[in-house]
Design brief:
single chain, 65 residues, alpha+beta, Factor Xa Inhibitor, 35% helix
Amino acid sequence: MPKIKTNRAAAKRFSFTKKGKVKHKRAYLRHLLSSKSPNRKRGLRHSAMLNKTEARVIAALMPYA
């Protein structure tokens, strides 16, 4: 039986914590930054965790992570 391929797009965007949660970088920090407050931009710098439903989808795309 062949190995399952890891989805490379998902592998570049998501990582797993030791407890199995899925970590990702927040969106909305690439352009049009002048209209966003410094407080909002500061909050967007930090990574976030996916909820259980979305984490299950990502786990299927990354079987060996």
